[in-house]
Specification:
With 516 residues, the chain is an alpha+beta fold. It has helices at residues 59-65, 124-128, 177-188, 234-241, 254-262, 266-271, 279-283, 362-369, 373-382, 425-432, 458-461, and strands spanning 21-32, 40-46, 52-57, 74-78, 81-84, 96-99, 105-108, 138-151, 158-164, 170-176, 197-206, 215-218, 225-227, 275-276, 291-302, 310-313, 328-329, 335-336, 340-351, 354-361, 402-410, 415-422, 464-467. A seven-stranded mixed sheet has the order 5-6-3-2-1-4-7. Strands 15-19-20-23-22-21 form a six-stranded mixed barrel. The longest helix has 12 residues, at 177-188.
Length: 516
């Protein structure tokens, strides 16, 4: 009788003990770096039954095992911490997840009965029908059907395109940062007339908003993008897509379509993929689902809270900083000699029988006032006022202004974020015509505002709405793709360091998306 512990199945792992013995294949491996925290390794393990579980290797154990952990190799592993799989975004649907400890041991061993890894792709039809878990990352594959948008000239790099799967269903896909650059490099060097097949792992599914269907994007860390002959069994997938009709005529018109989108007017981009709602309708929303809206209103009065009119933020990412000692390194990795003052102002906005609490952020305030928060604070200090609750008179330039707002409603945070604002009378009228008439207020203090700016008016209609094209510094979450709002599109900004990358061939006939 053997005195060794028997092998146990992945499906049976739970938090009742630490002494486990499993035989597994590493099917995926990636490195996670969230400054200033030390990086760590994430892996997906699969056993002989094909069941999978996610495992974390902290920095200390990573240094011990990094040279021994190889994707697609098989191992015998002992002893883990087992936790409930409460990650905000999960790479597999096991109820538990593992973590290496100082007591973990492993050895590489050929285990013949563990099958080779095969992708299980999420069907587009299921996603479009709402048959998905928003917290579960998925693998997808499709052929590029149409280019939609590309921006690689700025620090916020993104590309948006439509993918079509073998059933002919179409999904919108957004790639960020290094993934966007890789896609553009491939697109620019593909032979004209040839389809582009894209495989994206650990993709995040974003729930649809109103009439707009769900979309997918790469996740913060862990997503890998494989294009054309990088994909295992590429010819099989190429054959499955061969009979599909593509919107951009096998991509030969892709550059033209991209140019047409990029030339949309500012007003069209302002309204892109957003629902028109009045302040009253926004305040009345009861669903926990995030939704992007455009609305109009007039700034009426400041709402004074404990923070004052500015906060101390990072020089680069605008995240709120609570650093007591300077200099310091922000979580985004930026070294700061001193905190940078940034505007943050709560303003009551009214329209007809609705009102809302809007949070104006640094970029919009500076654009309207014409002075940075740093300079304005220095002026106040020079006059003997160093209290952030002492509001400079210059801030009144933000009041009594009728504007159009692009709003991201986030009920789970009891607030919203607006990526853009506009004082275009044409745009304001176009929005107002969709839910009622509006008397446009101009000047510093309109008579129409008198008697309508009492704080107790907020109780019935108030909603908390952030107006920003920057981060909301109080709401950045490190466990999710970082939410940096685009000026035009309400999409998440992930950074995607991956454990290993693939170089693209550039030896084909080129057609160009302009890249940095």
């Amino acid at each position: 009788m053997s005195i060794s512990r028997p092998f146990e199945l992945v499906r049976d792992l739970n938090d009742s003990k630490h002494l486990w013995k499993i035989a597994v294949r590493i099917t995926d491996i990636w490195y996670v770096q969230l400054p200033p925290k030390p990086g760590h390794l994430e892996m997906i393990l699969m056993d002989c039954k094909g069941d999978k579980i996610q495992v974390s290797v902290k920095k200390e154990e990573f240094n011990q095992w990094k040279d021994h952990l190889v994707e697609n190799h098989t191992y015998v592993m002992h002893n883990f911490n087992v936790f409930h799989n409460d990650l905000q975004f999960k790479a597999c649907n096991h109820a538990y997840r593992l973590q290496f400890t100082a007591g973990t041991t492993l050895r590489e061993k050929e285990v013949a009965d563990i099958p080779q890894f095969q992708y299980v792709f999420k069907k587009f039809a299921e996603i479009l029908a709402g048959d998905f878990d928003a917290d579960l990352l998925v693998d997808i594959i499709g052929v590029v059907d149409k280019m939609v948008f590309s921006e690689t000239q700025t620090s916020l790099k993104k590309v948006i395109f439509n993918l079509k799967d073998s059933s002919g269903e179409v999904m919108t896909c957004t790639l960020w940062d290094s993934h966007a650059l890789k896609f553009c490099n491939c697109y620019n060097n593909i032979t004209i007339g040839e389809p582009i097949i894209v495989l994206l792992t650990h993709a995040r599914v974003k729930e649809g908003q109103g009439k707009y269907p769900p979309t997918v994007s790469n996740s913060w860390c862990g997503s890998k993008i494989l294009i054309d002959d990088e994909i295992p069994d590429y010819q099989k997938y190429k054959d499955s897509f061969a009979t599909l009709t593509l919107s951009c005529d096998s991509l030969s018109q892709g550059s033209s379509q991209l140019s047409q989108y990029s030339n949309l007017s500012d007003d069209d981009r302002f309204m892109y993929k957003a629902e028109v709602k009045s302040l009253y309708e926004i305040a009345a929303l009861t669903s926990a689902e995030e939704i992007t809206c455009v609305t109009i209103g007039t700034t009426a009065m400041f709402i004074v809270g404990k923070q004052g009119w500015y906060y101390d933020g990072c020089l680069k990412c605008t995240k709120k900083i609570d650093a007591k000692d300077v200099p310091f390194t922000c979580k985004c990795g930026t070294y700061n000699l001193m905190p940078t003052p940034r505007y943050k102002l709560d303003i009551k906005v009214i329209h007809e029988n609705g009102s809302g609490r809007f949070v104006f952020w640094d970029r919009q305030c500076a654009d309207i006032i014409g002075v940075s928060a740093f300079e304005l604070r220095n002026r106040m200090v020079a006059e003997g006022e160093d209290d952030p609750k002492a509001f400079p008179l210059m801030l009144d330039m933000l009041l009594a202004r009728t504007m159009a707002f692009r709003v991201k409603v986030q009920p789970s945070y009891h607030q919203s974020s607006v990526m853009r604002l506009s004082e275009s009378t044409v745009l304001i009228k176009a929005i107002a015509d969709q839910f009622g008439t509006l008397d446009i207020h101009t000047g510093s203090t309109s008579d129409a505002l008198n008697g309508k700016c009492h704080l107790n008016d907020m109780s019935q209609y108030e909603s908390s709405v952030s107006i920003t094209a920057d981060h909301d510094p109080d709401n950045l979450q490190l466990l999710t793709p970082a939410k940096r709002m685009s000026v035009d599109l309400d999409l998440e900004l992930p950074q995607s360091p991956i454990f290993k990358s693939t170089q693209l061939s550039s030896s084909k006939v080129a057609k160009h998306i302009k890249t940095e």
